[in-house]
Amino acid sequence: MMLLTPEQQEEIDQLRSNPQLTLRAVAPGMEEHLYSAKPVLDHGFVRVIDYMGDDAAICQAARVSYGKGTKSVQNDAGLIRYLMRHWHSTPFEMCEIKLHVKLPVFVARQWIRHRTANVNEYSARYSILDREFYIPEPDSLAAQSVVNNQGRGQVLQGAEAARVLEILKSDSNRAYDNYESMISDDGQDGLARELARMNLPANIYTQWYWKVDLHNLFHFLRLRADSHAQYEIRVYAEAICEMVRDWVPAAYGAFEDYRLGGAVLSAKSVECLKRMLAGEPVTQEDSGMSKGEWREFEAVIGR
Ligand SMILES: Cc1cc2nc3c(=O)[nH]c(=O)nc-3n(C[C@H](O)[C@H](O)[C@H](O)COP(=O)(O)OP(=O)(O)OC[C@H]3O[C@@H](n4cnc5c(N)ncnc54)[C@H](O)[C@@H]3O)c2cc1C
Q1: Taking a C-beta distance cutoff of 8 angstroms, is the pair 124, 206 a contact?
Q2: At the top level of CATH, which class does the domain 6-134+205-260 belong to?
Q3: pLDDT tens, 191-235?
Q4: How far apart are CA 270 and CA 277, in angstroms?
Q5: What is the spatial distance between Cα 137 and Cα 292, in angstroms, rounded to a whole number?
Q6: Binding residue numbers for FAD
Q7: How many angstroms separate the alpha carbon of residue 110 from the centre of ligand 1?
Q8: Strands, DSSP E only, in 25-137?
Q9: How far, in Å, is the centroid of ligand 1 from the Cα of 89?
Q10: Which residues line ligand 1 (CB under 6 A)?
Q11: Comparing 51-65, 182-196, 269-283, which segment has the lowest mean pLDDT?
Q12: Which residues are annotated as a binding site?
């Protein structure tokens, strides 16, 4: 697997070897990530191109202060937790991140639904796409789930796994061979790139720059680093979580506590919980909740 070409790696090494003096806020944890590519799936990556702000910038905006806005690390962490707990979101919008992401087209289709970001994608009208397709690892080749229409069940085994893998590989390669032959521009016979690309499968890789503020990034991560998200986008979200943890440790800690690990309870759930704590036996039938809601409620309270 070649993640980056030697030329691309050289460019990154050069950028990383040329630190600049700046008066701007710098997050030391994020400086470690800057420019480097973090591998995701078989040919994909996420890398930080730029960022603005740090934990102190969130507090500075919340306090609308003249200076750094920092009282003490402990005070700041407390304020950030307060803001997160009470959905006071605009101070988090003061931090921004710009990522370069390489991802399969079917993952990009899910990702692009998050409208509160700025995107610029590699042009397959202008450039020729590389022969790079996402082929799942054997343990990600699973059958349709029998309990969840939007999910996976058992991992495929033996001959069935081999059969499916072979189809994925040969179809991808055949489609790419035809793509290449259609765009061959011998004389005037070749088809335009913008048309030839239409027979390429959705597991081909694309790339984009994606810029988003921290509030909307947390919203993205809450949905996509979640167990309900498809594995192939979840691994990107998890890679980004690691970067954000190093960038804004206090904000990420609050996000992990209140959003990723937290749960939202309906008024009915709160009522049931109060009855349970008072020692009253409560069942789904007299809870006022549907079977699905009750199942989810029981999972939250660990029954
Ligand atoms: C597990 C999972 C399954 C999904 N399944 C499907 C599916 O089957 N089919 C499908 O089509 N999508 C599906 N989605 C996509 C989902 O419905 C959202 O489109 C996606 O998660 C983006 O969320 P968002 O709109 O909140 O994000 P963003 O676009 O980033 O918006 C953030 C918030 O800004 C506000 N906002 C942004 N733009 C507007 C606007 N134009 N008008 C009003 N408010 C706006 C909203 O409050 C929104 O919540 C799924 C998502 C997940 C996580």
Answers
A1: yes
A2: alpha beta
A3: 889 999 999 999 999 999 999 999 999 999 999 999 999 999 999
A4: 10
A5: 33
A6: 90, 113-115, 121, 213-215, 219
A7: 10
A8: 37-40, 44-52, 96-104, 118-121
A9: 18
A10: 113-116, 216, 219, 223, 228-229
A11: 182-196
A12: 90, 110-115, 121-125, 197, 213-215, 219, 224
Write the residue with the smallest CA distance to atom 42 of ligand 1: 115
The best mutation among 93, 109, 113 to test binding of ligand 1, ranked by most ligand atoms within 8 Å of the C-beta, falls on 113
pLDDT of residue 268: 96
Contact residues for 93 (Cβ-Cβ < 8 A; gap 6+): 213, 214, 215, 216
Q: What is the pLDDT of residues 236-263, one digit of tens each?
A: 999 999 999 999 999 999 999 999 999 9
For 33-68, write each residue's pLDDT tens digit.
Answer: 999 999 999 999 999 999 999 999 999 999 987 776
Angle between helices 55-63 and 73-85 (to 10 degrees): 70
What confidence score (pLDDT) does residue 2 get?
63
**What gap in Å lies between CA 4 and CA 9, rounded to an integer?**
6
List alpha helices for 35-135, DSSP H: 55-63, 73-85, 105-111
pTM over 0.90: yes
Sign of the alpha-carbon torsion through 136, 134, 2, 238: negative
Domain ranges of the chain: 6-134+205-260, 136-202, 267-301
User: Residue 216 C-alpha to ligand 1 middle, in angstroms?
Assistant: 11
